[in-house]
Design brief:
The protein is mainly α and about 200 residues long. The protein has one domain. About 75% of the residues lie in helices and about 0% in strands. The N and C termini lie far apart (about 60 Å).
């Protein structure tokens, strides 16, 4: 059953949301990365912000490489646990779609959207902090920025256009189990990626 107003508004809203999120994440990675890296104790070279860390910082200063690695190793177990939890939610949604519907029922108010926004921003910052000690530092850092931007976008939606967001959630809840199971796939993929990249490393005896 198509949503009220037809498919065009839903498709348009989805494309705009995806475009804004990806564009803002890329722009934010370039613009606010120095501030975030400074906040979590990371120092980059000015010549190539995506390349190796500053050799000078690895010798002296509070943001040296040993400090950065120590902070990354400290946060990584938390990121691993959160990744496992997200993976379980995704797998649970695939096996029992009613579980995702039950979760969605509890996020139909502006206050709930703000709560989701806070959780997303916090989760993104955790991924950014743990990226340096993970198996895929650059990719995990980009994912962290995307999640932070998604959290900010969620707060803006709750503030500006909560009605359209609730309409989309209601429409999604009315779809069949197959569509809801598809929703659990990206959730499980995200959780498995975070859990794998932040999993404890076994040391040889």
């Amino acid at each position: 059953m198509p949503p009220e107003g037809g498919w065009a508004p839903v498709a348009g809203w989805s494309l705009v949301s995806i475009g804004v999120t990806v564009g803002a994440a890329l722009f934010g990675t370039w613009l606010i990365e120095p501030w975030v890296c400074s906040f979590v104790g990371i120092t980059r070279t000015r010549a190539d912000p995506w390349s190796q860390y500053s050799k000078r910082a690895s010798v002296h200063g509070p943001h040296s490489t040993p400090v950065r690695q120590h902070r990354g190793h400290t946060v990584r177990p938390l990121a691993f646990v959160l990744g496992v939890c997200i993976l379980l939610v995704g797998v649970g949604g695939i096996i029992a779609p009613s579980g995702l519907v039950w979760i969605a029922r509890h996020f139909t108010t502006s206050g709930a959207f703000y709560g989701i926004a806070i959780v997303r921003v916090a989760f993104g910052v955790i991924l950014i902090s743990a990226a340096a000690a993970s198996r895929a530092p650059k990719f995990l850092r980009v994912v962290g920025y995307i999640i932070v931007v998604a959290g900010i976008a969620t707060a803006l939606v709750g503030l500006i256009d909560i009605g359209s967001a609730l309409a989309m959630i209601d429409w999604w809840r009315q779809q069949g189990a197959a569509v809801i199971r598809l929703t659990g796939i990206p959730i499980a993929v995200l959780g498995s990626f975070v859990a794998y990249t932040c999993a404890p490393v076994r040391r040889a005896a």
